[in-house]
Amino acid sequence: MAEKKIAILxxxxxxxxxAALASWLEQTGADKVTVHELRSDDIAGIMPxxxxxxxxxxxxxxxxxxxxxxxLVSQDARERLDRRLSNLTEKERAELNIVQExxxxxxxxxxxxxxxxxxxxxxxxxxxxxxxxxxxxxxxxILRYAELTGHLGDVEKAxxxxxxxxxxxxxxxxxxxxxxxxxxxxxxxxxEDYVAIDDxxxxxxxxxxxxxTEQTEADETKIRAMKRRYExxxxxxxxxxxxxxxxxxxxxxxxxxxxxxxxxxxxNGIETDETKKHFVRDIIHFCHDNSILALAxxxxxxxxxxxxIWMGVDLVQGYYTARPAPLLLPEINPDIQREILRLHxxxxxxxxxxxxxxDENGHLSLDMLPRSDYSCIAIGSGADDPxxxxxxxxxxxxxxxxxxxxxxxxxxxxxENTSFTSAQENPCFELGENCEVQLILLGPNQMERGGxxxxxxxxLTIEGNGDLNMVVDAQESFGIGNDLESMHGPISFDQNGxxxxxxxxxxxxxxGSGRGGEVSISHGCYELSVNCEExxxxGSFSGVSHTSLxxxxxxxxxxxxxxxxxxxxxxxxxxxxRNIDLRCKIECxxxxxxxVLRGACYTDLFNGRLSSSLRGEQVTGIGALxxxxxxxxxxxxxxxxxxGKNALALGGYDTDTDIDIFLSENDIEINxxxxxxxxxxxxxxxxxxxRNRFIVNGDEVMHAMEDEPAENGIKE
Length: 716
Description:
Number of helices: 14
CATH topology of the domain at 107-348: TIM Barrel
Number of strands: 38
Radius of gyration: 36 Å
CATH architecture of the domain at 107-348: Alpha-Beta Barrel
Largest sheet: 26 strands, mixed
Distance between the termini: 84 Å
CATH class of the domain at 107-348: Alpha Beta
């Protein structure tokens, strides 16, 4: 309702009803409502426009002493109605009289058409379709004349009250199925009728879906109020006739219903109309991306049924599956049900199986995928597939699909400006068994919800000058590697761009797997962030992990309860560092920047900068918290800052620790109740020709130096 000034005229004995009406009018958009007490003879002979001018309003409601309410509209509206009525033919006037009698006598009846779930061919719900007990008038005529004369509210009231009474009387036959009730948001119903309707909705909420049938563009304020009303009752909304008329994108975004009914004009002949296919695919994809069930209405042929199911609709309705009937149909025709089950199984079999279709140069444009029926790209499954493949996207276009690389594939896959998001916590890229894949990055590339799976007997090399941004949100997850119950195959990075991996969830590893494997990184820049209860930046949860970093820059940030920056939770870590700039920040209860929690840690650093910032209850910068530590450092810069009750800089709580530092600069500052930066025995802690600063709890600690200071200026 557009904002307006409204007057309510009432005799003294109905003041409570006037107050309720005024409150309702204000809630539905009136700018100002005033109440006036006067007798009916006070307005006798006064034209509506004169009375509205006298009161300074645009609309008048006149209440009588009984329960009826009459709206006295503006003179312009009356004149428009008179003009409409004067243009009616004699036949139309006769139809109008019949419709008025139907409405005044509540002679509306209903037929029920099944809405079928494609997953199992069972009846999910029924749509209540309006009929009348007086022949010769169809539902379209009833709505037409009701709108013409301002009686859509009477249709709305009768529809809800009649069907809810029917539900009460047929609860056993209905079972746990639901009834779709057609509603016109623009129809005005009196407050006392709203009370009766709401009482019925509360009592039958589990059986009702309100289906919005737009006759006019609905007011945004009224839509929001209506959504809140049904949400409070736990009633779902369906948007009818989507794709035509007022059921457009704007209304879809406002309603965000539980069901979208794809209009029959789009369904009709869709199996031979490519334009309709593209449009309907986009509707279905939008629905599924937003947890909306897509319902195809007006399905009248086997071809239409097949096409709609193959495109992924959730529900179907139409003459082909079942016609409307005055009594509930308990099930659809068994032959049709078997056809639905077969088509849905074909959809499931085809889902995720788009065979690679490159041009003669091995290029596949991802622009086609948002309009396809599939969620997966299969590479290497055909004998004639090329061994160098280019997947080309464009910035801002996210493809909801994952890539499956067939077992035994040996070749190159180029990613150029691609963005993938995977469904159901699957990897975005999945190598088959015994694969050797060179993944070449060109331009910015993105992966969400899933990473790259590399089975134990396969090998992945990442090259190129492009970037890769990866965000994985899952309970148990990995970025590049394998799941937490498996080992991963050799993973090599020889690229010159940026690789950024962010892990969120319960347990996760950025690069690596649950049970170990090899990771080799040379060149490029890397940012890894792990925000899990348990997590590892690079390495594994158990087993043996071999990690080699050379000529690269890397930042690792780990916020966990238990975990490691680079290493293994429980097992053995071999870490080889050459010519690197490596920084790790870890916040945890129990953890190691570079090392293991329990097991053995062997770390070799040559020429570069290594830093560790750690905070936690039981933490160490380099080494095994519990177990064997072997650390060798030469011609490098080491910086460690730590805070924690039992924080250490080098090694862990066992004395099985060997430390050898040569020709280096070391800056270590620890605040800890341990009162030491390492528990390594003096005879197993060797520092030669290095410059050192060791601070524990604010005091400098002197570790014994061996040999003379270096001639290149590095001193004690």
